[in-house]
Amino acid sequence: MTAHVITDDQEALAVAASLAEEFRAGASARDAERRLPRAELDRLSASGLLAVTVPAEHGGADVSTSTLAEIFRLLAAADASLAQIPQSHFVYVNVINRQGTEEQRKFFFAEVLGGRRFGNAQSEAGTRHVQVIRTRLHPLPDGSYRLDGVKHYCTGALFADWIPVLARAEHDKLHVAYVPRDTPGVTVIDDWDGLGQRTTASGTVRLAGVEVPADRVLPHHLTFEGPQLHGAVAQLLHAAIDTGIAGGALAEAAEFVRTKSRPWFESEVETAAEDPLLIQRFGELALQARASEALLREAARAVDAARADLTDDSAAEASVAVAVAKVQAAQAAVDVAGALFEVAGTRSALNSLNLHRHWRDARTHTLHAPTRWKIQHIGRYVLNGTRPPRHGLL
Q: Is the pLDDT of residue 1 over 80?
């Protein structure tokens, strides 16, 4: 694949807006038919958007976090499943930037600039909690590794060129192994059956005796031994997806009411869009959606500020700002997508219209990390000045 190389933030946003309009047209049908978006992902790769965080010294645009968040918001407003697929891609580009050797950075950033995609194989099912990782990198005499384990919720792995795998190595330290999708011993199973985000193919990855060269393994545990933005960036992208879902649902609800809804007879108006009670409700929903957008921008600016001067304090401020944005966005996504039916009326519930995809996507995506714990960390920080923990999920 030959990929375009985007040169700056302005171009990245223009490309994202154009692709979002293109992807919006087929989003409902892809969801209804569970038609996996291979062609759309190839368009995304070829556009150069997946390489926009590659550092300038390696030929990338190195766009701001604010731009990256807006890219995800635009894509999610058009198709939340499609927007979710590259979330891990950018997370693991970030791991290379932080923990890769110069040779590893040179190699992998060239791969990304060439349009290659990263998936993920990080979560495991049946463990005591999400931080328990049973997948192992077994060191071999020649310095390479043998990789064994089973991963679940592996969004993007089915479409990936490389699958970053979270695994424990010597002394139970956390590492990331970057494994080509077609490596012997790697099996990607399309068994995702979530009620929402139907086309993310977030299925299972089995790893059986996979050979991994030493130079394809990065010491991820080092990320958390000092101030870090790994979790803040990852969670910011999730917040951007939720914000996009809320905005997309609100726009579709408004279009439906303007063009297809009938006014309630007691309103004594000619069109549903003139009903004062509907107008009031749309104003309330717009407040939720716009608050999410504003907090997303604020959080992204906090992350950018911390990138420029990374300390324990700036990292904490960024993580808390992202947590605030994520809590608001998650609530807005579920509320606005659910209210679509309230404002659009009975016809909107027809399965054939597939308007419920917005709520299904919101309800599914907002389960990634519980907002109740984010609120706890926000409260501890505001009341007692307690910095958030460095576990990568905040």
A: no
